[in-house]
Amino acid sequence: MANLTIQLGRDVTLSNPVMAASGTFGYGDEVPDLVDVNQLGGLVTKSLTLRPNEGHAPPRIVETPAGLLNAIGLANIGVEAFCAGKLPFLETLQTQVFVSIAGATVGEYVDILTAIERSGNKIAGYEINISCPNVDEGGMEFGVSASITETLTAKLRQLTGRFIMIKLSPNVTHIDAIAKAAESGGADGISAINTVVGLDMDPLTGQRSLSNLIGGLSGPAIRPIALAAVHSIAGAVSLPVIGMGGISSAEDIIRFVRAGATAVQIGTANYRDPAVGVNLLARLEQLMEQMQIETLEEIRGVIH
Amino acid sequence: MGLYRLVLRVGDMAALARPGQFVNVLTGAGWDPLLRRPMSIAGIDGRELQLLYKVVGNGTAAMSRWQSGDEIDLLGPLGNGWDAAADGFPVLLGGGAGIAPVYYLHKELLRSSTAHHLIMGSRSTEEHFLQHDPHSGISLSTDDGSAGVAGTVLDALHDLMEAALIPRSGLSLYGCGPPGMMRALADFAGQHEMDCQLALEEIMACGIGLCQGCNVAMRLPGNTPEHSYHQRYRLSCIDGPVFKAKELVTWQI
Ligand SMILES: Cc1cc2nc3c(=O)[nH]c(=O)nc-3n(C[C@H](O)[C@H](O)[C@H](O)COP(=O)(O)OP(=O)(O)OC[C@H]3O[C@@H](n4cnc5c(N)ncnc54)[C@H](O)[C@@H]3O)c2cc1C
Ligand SMILES: Cc1cc2nc3c(=O)[nH]c(=O)nc-3n(C[C@H](O)[C@H](O)[C@H](O)COP(=O)(O)O)c2cc1C
User: Fold this and answer.
1) Would you call B229 and A270 a contact, using CB atoms and an 8 Å cutoff?
2) Between vectors from CA A266 to CA A263 and to CA A269, what angle results, nearest 5°?
3) Which of B93, B101, B100, B144 is nearest to B121 (CA)?
4) What ipTM describes this predicted complex?
5) What are the residue boundaries of the structural domains of chain B, listed by start?
6) Mean pLDDT by 10-residue block, N- to C-terminus, for chain B (253 residues)?
7) What is the pTM assigned to this prediction?
8) B212 touches chain A (CB under 8 A)
9) 3.20.20.70, 3.40.50.1110, 1.10.1240.10, 3.20.20.370: which CATH number matches A6-298?
């Protein structure tokens, strides 16, 4: 019998390895008619900023071959409205909830996390989105610097005993070095990858496809990039890696486990079918039986 | 190129639909296209739902190849729908494939015996499936003059006013069509201080508010704080697709 339970951290057990990725599942309360959120292993909420944020002007999305290019611009309700309006619902869920946070300065990350620690007691932990422009460093993303990643992680580590996963950007030269920095800073897990930087336009008129010009690519198109990143990270750190990027099938989940992931997240595929994560579980069990394994752990990192 | 009509047996979902709402259709199992395609509901008949669409790319081309008896995957009904209780004599204007949500409203108004006028505009006669009959409440317009009034839906509207077939004031406009038409309608409604609702056809990914991709710029009240959410922008999928023209920033339409 396949056992899908995943021990992610000392205090965090997932009923199965599938979580919903940040920004692709709202705050978990949008889709009650379409999917039973509690059947997911975990749920990562839309990244929260300190203040409410309108995000970028339209257009924010464009479809590209087997991919979605987006520049939403972290549109979100802000931490105050989140604590008052969304957290109480999230705390009633049986699935493990991770709150994604995004700051423009180290101080903002600290303030957001502190605010949630003050009001929330039942969440499993946090995902730290470090693909954000750092205003103290001239807009350079936090996630491209190993030293800033370590400093940020260490700061947040002092504020909470809950699970902290640092979500890495693939748009760096050495993702393994950033992962090591997060580990040194005291992270409990590494999630990867965030979207891959991209651009598109109308070839004849030259009209930009996104108001922001530059966006982030997700979906099946980025799966091999994500697998290589997960492989590299898993070889560099001893923390659990939560893999994502283009997952749309049970076979894809197994690919990420073989690349070194302990659990996975599903993003863009939720837009096709919000129940995809839950619906893949039966197929995943079937494939595990076919491979004659009881736990995914048995094939984690195994590529011949 | 004409319009395609698709009739779907949707069962109980049909009873939930309102004019102006849409469904989000998965056009195939592969990754081209990756996302669902939003389509306005063009009519409900018992447990059947009708779509009217134009083939513009791979998704709609795949739909046009569906055979009778195929099973398809769709989400809906989604979105807010028209506010059919708006004051004034309803004039419904649909341009090209934009006829779909307008046609459904037309059918509902006929059903409730509510006096109104339907104007359908297109490039040429091929896209028309109705008869030009202004005296019984249906007018057509074509860019090339091959059917009905030569010109735009607004030219047809002017003609109707001149001929006193509709009131000169106190109209309530319901429009859907290409961006140029919707902008012209919004301007016209603004100049004449008429109530006007527009069904926008913003590109969408999820259709259910998860991705925040289909935002629409709103006219802002003066006191909007710098840090706000859901004021500068609304989402076409859950706050729309129908918006009051006067609430929209013109370039957005
Ligand atoms: C709420 C809503 C209701 C709609 N109702 C209808 C309807 O009833 N009938 C109908 O024919 N169409 C309708 N549309 C538009 C329809 O969704 C698009 O035509 C369709 O997504 C195109 O898919 P495709 O894969 O065939 O083309 P693609 O390959 O995606 O695109 C082909 C071309 O069409 C353009 N295009 C794509 N999507 C849109 C869009 N949403 N608006 C304008 N241009 C677009 C692209 O920029 C490209 O130039 C509606 C859209 C929305 C948001
Ligand atoms: C529209 C959209 C919005 C996203 N918003 C966020 C976000 O707020 N925070 C974040 O960390 N990642 C965000 N992501 C990235 C996803 O969580 C995920 O890392 C990425 O899309 C790769 O996975 P996928 O290919 O399964 O979508 C977003 C992705 C998309 C497509």
Assistant:
1) no
2) 155
3) B93
4) 0.93
5) 4-78, 89-202
6) 90 96 95 96 96 96 96 95 89 94 96 94 83 88 86 91 88 94 93 94 92 93 82 94 91 61
7) 0.95
8) yes
9) 3.20.20.70
